[in-house]
Structure formats: structure tokens, C-alpha cells
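Review form for a predicted model. The reviewer records the input and the model, then writes brief findings.
Reviewer: anonymous (R2)
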Amino acid sequence: MNTPIHDFLENYAKSGTVRLHMPGGKGLMYPYDITEISGADELYDCAGIIRASERNAAALFGASDTCYSCGGATLAIQAMLSAACEVTGKRKIAAGRFSHKSLVNAAILLDLDITWIYPEEFLGCALSHDAVEAAIDSDTAAVFVNSVDYLGGEADIAALSEVCKKRGVLLLTDNAHGAYKVFTGDHPLRLGADMTADSAHKTLPAITGTAYLHLADSVFFAPAKAAMSLFGSSSPSYLMLDSLDLCNAYISEKRTEALRTADLVSELKRTLAADGVALRESDAMRITIDANALGYTGYELAALMRENGAECEMSGMRYVVLLFSVVQPEHDFERTAEILRDIPRKTPLAPKTAPVFRPERKLSPREACFAAKKSVPVMQAVGRICAEVCSSCPPCVPVVMPGELIGEAEATFLADCGVEKMPTVL
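Model under review:
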């Protein structure tokens, strides 16, 4: 596959041109760090090398069009929500309750009304067909769901697509953790999603902050680009664009290697299970360990792994999450098995599972966010209205949304997760 952005940057770096333009580094440390000079195209109004590269990405993912994001999946989510509202003329969405805070913040910026769809378990993205259909009404523009949740659970995108098509609404997916699905054949776009935001940097070989917004219909392209121009930086990074361009080449040329990595993750799961490590079922690039079954909290097990040279993606009261990418070095798998094999087993703890909280809504997210507010110690927030997204990171999934009443159970849970203060409405 050709790499139009990378080729332009390489040729410019070799040309010896006197750089009488931004950025101030002048290419001394980062030769490919440029601005929108002649021939470099413009991200939000592209017709040259960036547009050619985006079309390459669209072909790889099976999209009608693709928009590059230098603001991560967050910007892609903002853009697809804005595009969905503009195309449908509606400003209401139904969304999986345990969506990333980027969805909530986008709804605040766009003044969207949200109907929450509750799963059966905390942090889960698996939603029942009946719950999704019940959340849709005549004012609903789209259903928004996670494709893969932070613990490695997966939504039935094909089935949800059927529900959305039946009710005449769009299906939007946060596929931040599932960009690797371009290799495994179950990418949300291929299963019926209308738009999907993919973080390139989480499981593909691209630098932090890069993302794709894939569109099933080109009707969304112009409004999505306009929204990215509105919410994104006016100085998008060419280092990031170069990374996306080269990522396309990897996807095009390294399918066998990527699938080999998925096989290695599966092999490691079998090895750990044989060694007595309790695992939760998870997607192809993630291993989720039940630390309680080994006698630890997730925090304690992650600390032990850190002491032995492995840093985990996430830990909580019960689980530790290990996240792999399609370019994970093969020796990492053997080393991970050794580290976990050497950790002493203790008497199992009672499973520390959080409930599915259902706080009462008092204000819209936008009303709460822009209201006069006061930050108070988390246990003093009981009985007050949440004013801003407040969650531990990762997973950056709010327990109480802006505009909702903070109960004692929610405050206690947040305190246990390390949250010390809560912004509340006066």
C-alpha cells in the first residue's frame, strides 16, 4: 500500500528546504514535524495526500469514508455524534450506561439528551436487544454502544444493528479498544455499525492520540469533518498523521503477523488457566485476571506484577487487565506467564463486584456542567447533584453522571476507587 503522507514528509525532510514556517523546532529533532505547507494538505479540508491516505484506510476497514483524528477516539466520538444529529435532525441518543467519559463530555458540548441503557453487570457493554429497543423513541437519532468494554466483554454488534435498522436509527460504536478487529473480521463496521471510532494507538502500531473515524455512508463525511474542525486543534500533528499513514501500510501488509499475536494471547490464556490463574472471558487482545481468586485485590496483584517488571493496563478491586497489541514482542508472553506463575497463591477473597448503579437524574448533563459548583469531599457529596464527570482513570467510565443525585452507595464506591473529591452543583 502506498503511504502518501509519509512519502511527502520524507521527501521534504531530505530536500534541504529552509523552513521559514512553523513549527519552531525547524525539523532539528523531528524532521517530519511540519505545518500545512504547500503540498501537505489540510486535515479538516483535505483533497491531497491526507485525503488519499484516508481513502486507503477506508478501503482497509471496509468503510465508505474515513476521517483521521489527531485528538484520539474522543474527537472521533464528538464528530460522529455531531454528524448523526446533523444528518437526522434529532438531538437525542440512547447509550450504553458504561460509556467512556468522552461520550458524556461530547453530549455536554453538543447539548444532547441521553437515555441510558443499563447492562446486567458493572462496566459491561453487552446490552439486551429488548433494553436497546425500549430505549429508542421517535426522537432518537442514534444508539451509541461500546464494542469492547474495559474488562474485555464484547457487544453483539450484528444483533444491535438489526434492532437499529428495524427502528430506523443509526448505530454508533466506540471501538476504541477494538481497532485490531480489522484483522479478525468482526470489526463493527462490517457487522452493521453506521459509524465507529477506533483508537489506532491502543492495539495497533500508531502513536498515542491517533484514531480513525470510519463511516458506512459518505453522507456523514462533510458534517464529521466540520465537527472535527470545531472541536479539534487547528494545528493537527503531522507526526500523528504520518503514524496513521504507516499504520495503514502495516494493516495492509502484516495480517499474518497480527493474527499470530492474537494466537499468542489465546495461548497465554490457556497457559495461565493451567497454572491456576482465574481468568474472566475477554476479547482477543486482552487478558482479565480475577485477582480475588488468587487471594489479592486487583490493586495488590498489579503492584506485585509491577515489582517483577510488568505494568498492567488497569487494576481494580477485583480484576487486573493486561492489554496486548498486534505488535507485542513474542518474549513478553513467556515473561508474563513466568511473573504470574511466581506470585504466591493465597486464600481466595470474596469476589468484590460492584453493582450496576442507577442514580436519579435531576438535571441534564449540560445544565449540571455549566451550573455554579462546589467541590466537596466525596462522602460529603451524598445527597448533592454531580456537576462534572468524576471517575478513576482507567477506565474513565463515570459511576454518577453530571446532573445525577449522588447516593451513599455511589460515594462509597468512588471513595474505594481513590476518588477524594466530587464537583457538585450549588
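Findings: The longest strand covers residues 140-146.
Further findings: The chain has three domains: 4-253, 255-342, 365-425.
Recommendation: see findings above.
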